[in-house]
Amino acid sequence: MRILVSGGGTGGHIYPALAVATQLQRTFQAEILYLGSDDGLEAELAPAAGLPFVTVKAGKLARYVSWRTVTGLARVPVGIVQAIGVVRRFRPQVVFTSGGYVAVPAGLAAWLHRVPLLMHQQDVPANLSNRLLAPLATCISLAFEDSRVYFPARKTLHVGNPVRQAILDVRQVSVEQARQQLGLDPRCPLLLVTGGSQGARHLNQVTCRALPALLERCQVLHISGKKLFQETETLARRTLAALTEELRGRYRLVPYLDAEMALALQAADVVVCRAGAATLSELAVLGKPSILVPLPPAIGSSPQEANAAMFGRRRAALVVRNDDLTPQVLAGHVETLLTSPTYREAMVRALSALARPDATEAIAEAVARLAGVAPTREEQASLC
């Protein structure tokens, strides 16, 4: 079974694609070829995962006019021609895309060669590339039920978002053990603050200014992002200078966590973070109460705001707009969550209803089924 996998631009698109590709190799001994952009993060991550990798030129399909938009559009026809050549040579039985602008040439090439296309939608609202591909897709897997309104019902399959195997494995580690392995106090509640791999300046600044109130209640593990580490460290040092040595010892600032990130999430009582689809899926699988501060839109609407709003409606998280987050607001919400076990337990139950720990297996099986390899699941009998 030969499967062409494509997804790129950001880790949020790439990691699910890698998870599905790995599952297809493990379960169905599939031959995988990963198609990515020549300037995307996937060019580093896919080969590192041991996957054969080929690049095409892909232009970002932005909704505003700029020089970068013009140059990006100029790359699109070149990328489509290159993707057609890849499909013609590799002759996949199915193409799987997980989003990002590189998915457009991959999906179009699949359609032109009459190869079944399974497209995955991660965020609640459909992004531009997936809106373009939807009419060409054979099947559309959804991370969240709320996304059904964007696509033809006969094509959709609600399976959840693939999460990293490390997240699934860390569920076997107790909260106290996770803290010990990270060198933290196993008995003291932990607040984890993260703005993702790039960091979030506003989250960093608010957290640093809220430290006097936060450290009275809990210990804080703060992931600043590599580029923002120095400025965050300077601000934190100024704030901590007025505190006792005991309280200062409750704060740890790191630029980035990779292998230990799953452990950090498991160790946390409360997580403060953005609202990317992959992050929310991991919080749901681990049952972690959170304060979501969605990334505001640069222009138009923000998928993170829609993701967070959906979690908020289901009482699976507290949601605060980026501009509304102040040190007082942050400290107040953290105190509410830490001092109300009933509130936290209700949030964990709501998260459990959203969790899909078997999403990777379900998508891999759907891909294999389109290739005529996997048996049909009862729940998929009338879908796609």
From TrEMBL:
It is a peripheral membrane protein. It catalyses: di-trans,octa-cis-undecaprenyl diphospho-N-acetyl-alpha-D-muramoyl-L-alanyl-D-glutamyl-meso-2,6-diaminopimeloyl-D-alanyl-D-alanine + UDP-N-acetyl-alpha-D-glucosamine = di-trans,octa-cis-undecaprenyl diphospho-[N-acetyl-alpha-D-glucosaminyl-(1->4)]-N-acetyl-alpha-D-muramoyl-L-alanyl-D-glutamyl-meso-2,6-diaminopimeloyl-D-alanyl-D-alanine + UDP + H(+). Keywords: Cell cycle, Cell division, Cell membrane, Cell shape, Cell wall biogenesis/degradation, Glycosyltransferase, Membrane, Peptidoglycan synthesis, Transferase. Transmembrane segments: none annotated. Residues 191-360 form the Glycosyl transferase family 28 C-terminal domain. NCBIfam families: murG. This is UDP-N-acetylglucosamine--N-acetylmuramyl-(pentapeptide) pyrophosphoryl-undecaprenol N-acetylglucosamine transferase. It comes from Thermogemmatispora tikiterensis.
